[in-house]
Amino acid sequence: MKVYFVGAGPGAADLITLRGARLLGSVRMVLYAGSLVPVELLTHCAPGTELLDTAQMDLEQQQACYVRAKEQDIDVVRLHSGDPAIYGATAEQMRRLEALGIAYEIVPGVSSFTAAAAAIGTELTKPEVSQSVILTRVSGRASAVPELESIARLAEHRATMCIFLSGPHLKKIVTDLLLHYPPETPVSLVHRATWPEERSYTGTLGTILEETKRGAWNLTTMMLVGAALDKGMAAESSLYSKDFTHLFRVVKKDEEAA
């Protein structure tokens, strides 16, 4: 018996990995985060699979499901939105599984921050502009963010930043970002990337608050911010330059002379 923590991806049913879809179709019990995972993902499950929505369950109730599955000697998929490694609340489940002697495996998924970047057609890194991506969020009731990782502190790097669950805190976030990023810094909001109701906003830190309606971006919204989002900035890597030699492509001498 084994529990598989499967990343469901950002929302679209066809953005789950092949391995994740295969596992959904092979197990007899699936626990899924119903408030975050679209029901369309469950079409990958086999008929008769026991489907349990964890949105109404606490950790002890979820643990009871694992115990019951162990008694029945059946495998379980625990379906998490995005990738289980990012804000997945999986560590506490794994500790309990280890205490129960239940084996588990993690199957990575497509994160919502990469889906958001794809939705607005951008790359998060550009040579000599930003080569770092900061994934973060603001403090919420369920879990606090350490002071050293506050938006204001992280903004000092002026790297590309992806801020999860940013919608309800836009004013505070923008105020903190403007401590270090210039007002003309590009910023985008993406609500429910890859879902049917996906929508986005693109502007600058200096205009976002006046151009967006308060409360319109609550809940599942990702904020992307940083100079790398500027599509007019023509920074290019040397990787594919005709003059750049590496292990798999050698510039011939006559080409160098030319």
TrEMBL record:
Domain Tetrapyrrole methylase: 2-208
Pathway: Cofactor biosynthesis; adenosylcobalamin biosynthesis
EC number in record: 2.1.1.133
Molecular function per GO: precorrin-4 C11-methyltransferase activity
Taxonomic superkingdom: Bacteria
GO biological process, one term: cobalamin biosynthetic process
Record has Calcium as a keyword: no
CDD domains the UniProt entry points to: Precorrin-4_C11-MT
Annotated keywords: Cobalamin biosynthesis, Methyltransferase, S-adenosyl-L-methionine, Transferase
PANTHER family reported for this sequence: COBALT-PRECORRIN-4 C(11)-METHYLTRANSFERASE (PTHR45790:SF4), SIROHEME SYNTHASE-RELATED (PTHR45790)
Family membership noted in the UniProt record: Belongs to the precorrin methyltransferase family.
Protein name, UniProt field: Precorrin-4 C(11)-methyltransferase
Organism of origin: Duganella phyllosphaerae
